[in-house]
């Protein structure tokens, strides 16, 4: 083979040069990294574009795809960009074109699209052969003056044409439309902002370059996303504007519709760059996994605008559900700031003021270069007008000269070889307000123009060429006034441009005026183009469900069949004593109302069970129901065992949580046991409950009570010296114990235990030592008989009287001073309410009540009556009381609850309610549990048991 055949066509001569692979890898990787940083991933701080975006817009501008022209196929645009400026894949170019046309991707789209350009549900755009595009009006602001040498151009990849290194944008596009990208070892994420706000911030910076970032934030308070939403986290925004890095949170916007049978949540705005299909899938997943309750149906009603409709069960609060969705879905998303951009060719993290400063300096440069270009063009035109004035002054001679010349070069030489009469030009110069010297091109040699010696005008080669380029018909049709006026205007323009270039203050004023024009020119006819889409809120970023709850007083009812619900307290107006009440629950089967408590929606409800466990639930999480609803089973909210049921409900208000270490929970069981335990031990109750008390069966031996517990023979019998009732026969009976009531107390609080058969035992709580959660407690009250049991434990907050109510609806108030307070626990107490066939054979409840308070009474038939406390007579201990509620045959009172002052209605409301006191509404409420034994189950108490002496 010949030597020439060994020569490689590319010049390789067969020589191999050894290199160090580590050095080569370092060099190659750095070259690659710089290429990605400079030419692909990071935007220029001046115009806010990466090369591909800049090339697409420039190609469209050069191709005439402007807003005033028809749409063209996207494939044509992509082909032009790829062929002239961007020799990469067509999919990347088309993806860039598509994104610039999406109004949900860019705050101000730079491309107008026709056809399917994708959607917010991650729908892919149609192929480029189907879609059409052209520049949007605002995109023209990015390329304005690009033909006036305002920016540098560089050769394209093939050296066949040139492309701009940066676009002479009239607004800070990087802040307005934002940018994101991942380079090598660095990334950028700049959220979009409102054009009007950003330009106002720029104007403020121009007026005061020493403006602080906090002052700039008065004009630019936060980003403004094309998809709207509510912006949270001003602290993160401020940090980002000061340091270039930070975080905000973007929350969805929703509307709630409360209809008679169903509640609807319509989500109408979702966070930036979040797909509504992804949101819907996630919500359905949460429902399927039972991670969220209350949503019965999810509908996607989105068309042109976002509309995700959630159907909500009537017992649930839509705002609470949305708060849970904010925490578990992308309906609330974080947006990170990493404001990294190329400044003078180097990556730099910029704060808000630096962004604006770089843009303003760039605009100064653009305006300066434009003025230089316009000055050059104006002087050239003035120079041509001088030549036209000479031609007009010597028209016949010049026409004769041109006609007699064989070639253009000969005619040009003849024009340059002599001086010409310049009377018309001299007259034009005399009428100028400025010196004609400023109109002379800076590169024109001294020999051309009016000669000061002979007064003749000597044409320059450029002027001779201008005269020869004119047609004879135009040359002979020249008008002196037209030339004179245009010349005067050009000289004035030259003077203005020179003044701008020589005076920085005037240049600044031009810059400021153009910012105002850009701000105003981009407003649509409806004047909403610059309206902010994303609202800024001072709400906390992370809200608990309680933050969305309307704080109001509610009635909580619980039935023997374990149904629970809440109703607004103001649904029940007060009635006169003896009224029938308003139907609060439609009792079904043999169910009965068991308990009634009143609290606020923000309170905590403690639920004590038959197994001695305690659960907690916020009141607002309980089902809110109408009077026609039963509510929902308590098992839907608490993890109860099969044989476990709720026996006691108590409310812990906000005051109970104050100074929690000095407070106790005081337990009283039906068999007279009492216990106190630190309230702080119940501050964290698990979802599967917490052991609160050990409930042991009590063996009643005649008058003595003995706990029956495994491996525990130690019995606290209470107070020494307490003997049984003489003559009673000892009967061995095993009685299951359960909680009667739980209250919050402090050290030294008096406690009043009230029994079902109308007795009260009062002692100081210091008689009961603090015990652990699992202890059984000690004897607090010795019961009078086997049928008796403790029904209430009252801790007076003041000297207000005690109110007691019998099963047949008779009630009375008793002064505290009539009840002896013993130094020790364990007595049988004294009588507090006389029972009889008329009054009933048992008490159903007791509470402390004030004159201005009200009392809520609910019957086992589901009726609720609300009466004023001052209508209940104050009597001695041994009396039966007065009728509080009018019961139908077979109906008994189930529970009572005091309504403290502040919840009572005004007098006019009471009068209105009284007029309708006899009306019963056909509605359903919660079915509550055991209303106690009926009158037939209890033996009447003897008069002897109501002796005024203590037992």
UniProtKB/TrEMBL annotation:
Positions annotated as active site in the UniProt record: 130 (o-(5'-phospho-dna)-tyrosine intermediate)
This protein's record includes keyword Isomerase: yes
Recorded superkingdom: Bacteria
Entry keyword Ribosomal protein: no
GO process annotations (BP): DNA topological change
Location of the region described as Disordered in the Swiss-Prot/TrEMBL record: 924-951
InterPro entries reported in the protein's UniProt record: GyrA/parC_rep, Gyrase/topoIV_suA_C, Topo_IIA-like_dom_sf, Topo_IIA_A/C_ab, Topo_IIA_A_a_sf, Topo_IIA_dom_A, Type_II_DNA_Topoisomerases
One Gene Ontology term, aspect cellular component: cytoplasm
Family assignment from sequence similarity: Belongs to the type II topoisomerase GyrA/ParC subunit family.
Protein name: DNA topoisomerase (ATP-hydrolyzing)
EC number: 5.6.2.2
Amino acid composition bias (Polar residues), ranges on this chain: 925-942
Domain (Topo IIA-type catalytic): residue spans on this chain: 42-546
Catalytic activity: ATP-dependent breakage, passage and rejoining of double-stranded DNA
Organism: Psittacicella hinzii
GO function terms (MF aspect): ATP binding; DNA binding; DNA topoisomerase type II (double strand cut, ATP-hydrolyzing) activity
Keywords: DNA-binding, Isomerase, Topoisomerase
């Amino acid at each position: 083979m010949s030597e020439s055949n060994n020569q490689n066509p590319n010049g390789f001569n067969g020589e191999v040069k050894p290199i160090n692979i580590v050095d080569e890898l370092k060099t190659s990787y750095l070259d690659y990294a710089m290429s990605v940083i400079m030419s692909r991933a990071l935007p220029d701080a001046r115009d806010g574009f990466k090369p591909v975006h800049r090339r697409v817009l420039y190609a469209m501008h050069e191709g005439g795809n402007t807003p005033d022209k028809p749409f063209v196929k996207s494939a044509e645009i992509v082909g032009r960009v790829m062929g002239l400026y961007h020799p990469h894949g067509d999919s990347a170019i088309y993806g860039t074109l598509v994104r610039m046309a999406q109004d949900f991707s860019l705050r101000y789209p730079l491309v107008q699209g026709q056809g399917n350009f994708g959607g917010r549900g991650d729908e892919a755009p149609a192929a480029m052969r189907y879609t059409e595009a052209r520049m949007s009006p605002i995109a023209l602001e990015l390329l304005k003056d690009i033909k006036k040498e305002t920016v540098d151009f560089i050769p394209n990849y093939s050296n066949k044409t040139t492309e701009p290194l940066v676009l002479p944008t009239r607004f800070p596009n990087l802040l307005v439309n934002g940018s994101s990208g991942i380079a090598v070892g660095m990334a950028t994420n700049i959220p979009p902002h409102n054009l009007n706000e950003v330009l106002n911030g720029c104007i403020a910076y121009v007026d005061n370059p020493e403006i602080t970032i906090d002052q700039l934030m008065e004009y630019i308070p936060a980003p403004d996303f094309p998809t709207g939403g509510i912006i949270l986290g001003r602290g993160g925004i401020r940090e980002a504007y000061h340091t270039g890095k930070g975080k905000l949170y973007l929350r969805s916007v929703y509307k709630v519709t409360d209809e008679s049978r169903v509640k609807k949540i319509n989500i109408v705005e979702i966070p930036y760059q979040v797909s509504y299909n992804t949101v819907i899938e996630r919500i359905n997943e949460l429902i399927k996994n039972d991670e969220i309750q209350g949503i019965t149906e999810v509908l996607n009603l989105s068309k042109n605008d976002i509309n995700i409709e959630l159907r909500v069960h009537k017992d649930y609060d839509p705002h609470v559900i949305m708060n849970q969705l904010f925490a578990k879905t992308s309906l609330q998303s974080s947006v990170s700031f990493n404001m990294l951009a190329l400044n003078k060719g180097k990556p730099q993290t910029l704060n808000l003021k630096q962004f604006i400063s770089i843009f303003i300096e760039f605009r100064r440069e653009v305006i300066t270069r434009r003025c230089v270009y316009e000055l050059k063009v104006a002087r050239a035109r003035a120079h041509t007008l001088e030549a036209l004035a000479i031609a007009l002054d010597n028209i016949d001679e010049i026409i004769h000269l041109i006609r007699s010349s064989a070639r253009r070069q000969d005619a040009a030489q003849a024009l340059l070889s002599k001086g010409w009469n310049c009377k018309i030009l001299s007259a034009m110069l005399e009428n100028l307000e400025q010196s004609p010297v400023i109109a002379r091109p800076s590169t024109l040699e001294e020999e051309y123009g009016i000669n000061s010696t002979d007064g003749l005008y000597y044409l320059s080669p450029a002027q001779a060429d201008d005269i020869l380029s004119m047609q004879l018909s135009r040359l002979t049709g020249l008008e002196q006034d037209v030339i004179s006026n245009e010349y005067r205007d050009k000289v004035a323009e030259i003077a203005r441009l020179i003044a701008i270039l020589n005076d920085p203050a005037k240049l600044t004023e031009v810059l400021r005026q153009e910012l105002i024009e850009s701000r105003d020119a981009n407003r649509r006819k409806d004047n909403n183009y610059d309206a902010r889409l994303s609202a800024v809120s001072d709400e906390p970023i992370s809200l608990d469900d309680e933050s969305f709850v309307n704080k109001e007083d509610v009635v909580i009812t619980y039935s023997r069949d374990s149904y629970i619900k809440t109703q607004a307290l103001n649904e029940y107006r007060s009635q006169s004593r003896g009224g029938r009440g308003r139907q609060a629950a439609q009792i079904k089967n043999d169910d009965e109302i068991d308990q009634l408590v009143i609290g606020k929606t923000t309170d905590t409800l403690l639920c004590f069970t038959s197994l001695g466990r305690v659960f907690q639930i916020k009141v607002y999480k309980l089902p809110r129901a109408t009077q026609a609803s039963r509510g929902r089973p308590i098992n839907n909210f608490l993890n109860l065992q099969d044989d476990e049921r709720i026996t006691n409900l108590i409310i812990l208000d906000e005051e109970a949580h104050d100074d929690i270490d000095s407070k106790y929970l005081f337990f009283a069981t039906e068999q007279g046991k009492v216990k106190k335990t630190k309230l702080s031990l119940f501050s964290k109750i698990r979802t599967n409950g917490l052991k609160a008390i050990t409930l042991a069966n009590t063996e009643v031996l005649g008058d003595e009570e003995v706990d029956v517990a495994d491996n525990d023979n130690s019995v606290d019998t209470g107070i020494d010296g307490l003997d049984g009732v003489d003559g009673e026969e000892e009967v061995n009976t095993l009685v299951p114990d359960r909680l009667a009531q739980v209250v919050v107390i402090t050290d030294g609080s008096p406690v009043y235990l009230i029994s079902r058969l109308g007795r009260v035992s009062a002692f100081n709580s210091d008689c009961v030592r603090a015990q652990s959660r699992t202890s059984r407690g000690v004897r607090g009250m010795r019961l009078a008989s086997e049928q008796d049991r403790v029904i209430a434990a009252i801790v007076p907050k003041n000297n207000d009287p005690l109110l007691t109510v019998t099963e047949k609806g008779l009630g009375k108030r008793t002064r505290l001073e009539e009840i002896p307070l013993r130094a020790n626990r364990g007595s049988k107490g004294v009588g507090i309410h006389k029972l009889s066939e008329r009054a009933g054979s048992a008490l159903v409840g007791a509470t402390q009540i004030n004159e201005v308070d009200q009392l809520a009474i609910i019957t086992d038939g589901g009726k609720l009556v609300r009466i004023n406390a001052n209508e209940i007579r104050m009597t001695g201990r041994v009396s039966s009381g007065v009728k509080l509620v009018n019961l139908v045959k077979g109906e008994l009172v189930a529970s009572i609850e005091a309504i403290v002052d502040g919840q009572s209605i005004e007098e006019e409301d009471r009068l209105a309610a009284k007029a309708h006191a006899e009306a019963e509404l056909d509605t359903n409420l919660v079915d509550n549990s055991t209303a106690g034994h009926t009158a037939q189950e209890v033996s009447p108490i003897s008069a002897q048991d109501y002796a005024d002496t203590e037992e």
